[in-house]
Design a protein that fits this description.
Blueprint lengths: L1 E4 H17 L3 H13 L3 H20 L9 E9 L2 E4 L3 H15 L24 E7 L4 E8 L1 H4 L3 E5 L4 H16 L7 E9 L1 H11 L11 H15 L14 E11 L4 E8 L6 E4 L1
C-alpha cells in the first residue's frame, strides 16, 4: 500500500491553484490560434489576439490571467491502495487552496454566508471537493478555478424523454444565446446528460476538464457535440459578445444512465480560459 502524506497533498494543491491561474493549457491556446483564422469579424479577430497576448503575458510574468481567480473546485481520484497519513484529506485540500491563493496573489472570492452578511472568508476556502475512489495506488488531483461570470450562466432542466434530441439541442443553444457575452466568450460548454438532478450538474462540470478538441467516445454523442458547436457558432455572439463567428471553442458532453421517466440536462459554461491543472501523486 502506498502512503501519501498530508504535506505532499497540501504542496500539490498549492501549486495547482497558482499554475491553473497563471498558465493556460496548450489545447486552449492552440484552439484560439486556429479560430483566429476562422473569425470573420475584425473586432472578433482583435479580441482573440488580445486574449492570446494576455495569456502569454500571464505566463511570462507569472501573474493571474484574469482578476476573477475563481472558486477552487477540486476533483480527486484516490486509488484504493493509497493510505493517506498525517491528517485529514479534506483539510489538506483547504490548506493547499489557502496557501496557493495567498502565495500566488490570487483574489479571494468566497463568502461565509451566501445571502445575508456575505462576509469574505479571506482565504478562498472552503474549496468545492469531489472525490472518486478508483483502482490503483495513485492520487490524481485536479484544480479547476471557476469564475462567477461563467458559473452564473449555468442551468439545469429536468426534461422528459418526449423532449428528445431536438429538445436538448434547443435548450443548450438557447442557453448560450441567453448568456450572450456574460461568460466572456469564446466559451467551452459542458453538458451533462442523464443521471439525476445533482449528477447531471456534476457531469456537466466534469465535461469541462476534457481537452479542447476531444470527442465523446460514443459516436452519437460525438456527433451531437459537433452539431451543438456549429449551431452555437452560428449565433453571431462572437468573442466577448461583440459579434463574430467564434462564440464557443468547444462543446463537451458527459452522459450516464437515468430513470425511465426523466431526462436531466445540465449546462455548465466555462470562459475562454478553461482553467484547470492536474497532478498525479
Amino acid at each position: 500500500m502506498k502512503e501519501i502524506t498530508i504535506s505532499t497533498i497540501i504542496d500539490a494543491v498549492e501549486k495547482l491553484c497558482i499554475d491553473a491561474n497563471y498558465f493556460i493549457g496548450k489545447d486552449v491556446t492552440d484552439c484560439m490560434k486556429a479560430n483566429l483564422e476562422k473569425e470573420e469579424s475584425p473586432v472578433g479577430k482583435e479580441i482573440l489576439s488580445q486574449i492570446l497576448e494576455n495569456n502569454s503575458l500571464a505566463a511570462e510574468k507569472q501573474i493571474p490571467m484574469c482578476q476573477d481567480t475563481g472558486i477552487a473546485v477540486v476533483f480527486l481520484e484516490v486509488g484504493q491502495e493509497v493510505h493517506i497519513v498525517g491528517g485529514s484529506l479534506q483539510e489538506a485540500i483547504h490548506e493547499g487552496v489557502r496557501r496557493g491563493y495567498e502565495k500566488g496573489y490570487l483574489r479571494k472570492s468566497m463568502v461565509y454566508d451566501p445571502i445575508v452578511e456575505r462576509k469574505n472568508t479571506q482565504d478562498n476556502t472552503p474549496a468545492i471537493i469531489y472525490t472518486d475512489i478508483v483502482p490503483g495506488d495513485t492520487m490524481k488531483i485536479t484544480v479547476a478555478p471557476k469564475g462567477a461570470g461563467s458559473e452564473n450562466m449555468s442551468e439545469l432542466r429536468m426534461m422528459t424523454p418526449s423532449d428528445g434530441l431536438e429538445g436538448v439541442i434547443q435548450f443548450v443553444v438557447d442557453k448560450v444565446k441567453r448568456a450572450s457575452g456574460n461568460p466572456c466568450p469564446p466559451v467551452v460548454v459542458g453538458v451533462g446528460l442523464g443521471g439525476n438532478f445533482e449528477q447531471s450538474a456534476l457531469l456537466a462540470k466534469k465535461a469541462l476538464l476534457r481537452p479542447i478538441g476531444s470527442r465523446h467516445t460514443e459516436q452519437k454523442f460525438a456527433d451531437l457535440e459537433r452539431t451543438l458547436l456549429e449551431k452555437i457558432n452560428n449565433l453571431g455572439i462572437g468573442p466577448m459578445g461583440l459579434g463574430g463567428r467564434i462564440t464557443a471553442l468547444d462543446v463537451h458532453i458527459e452522459t450516464m444512465a437515468c430513470h425511465i421517466a426523466s431526462m436531466p440536462v445540465a449546462i455548465n459554461i466555462q470562459c475562454h480560459a478553461s482553467r484547470h491543472k492536474t497532478v498525479i501523486l
